[in-house]
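hiii, so i know i said id send this last week but things got crazy w the move. better late than never?? heres the sequnce for the chain we talked about at the cafe, plus the structure i predicted for it. fair warning i was half asleep when i ran it
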Amino acid sequence: MPVGPGKYDDLCTYVREQAKGICNVVIVVDGVKGSGFSVQATTMEVQLSLPALLRKIAKEIERSLRGVAS
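okay and structure toks below
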């Protein structure tokens, strides 16, 4: 997880506050500030679980896209 605010930290804060979540990731491709991401997590436990969660999400995306490509 990167140290310090990301390019889109302002949007990440907005999303986290509106969702009242303990962790969120914002990924932007070709946005007004270019491509980038921001991650916010409120506890070390959540931060440590994030890589595994992101791998799980990536696998789900791949499964979904394979169904579309068929």
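btw The mean pLDDT is 91. thought thatd interest u
miss u guys!!
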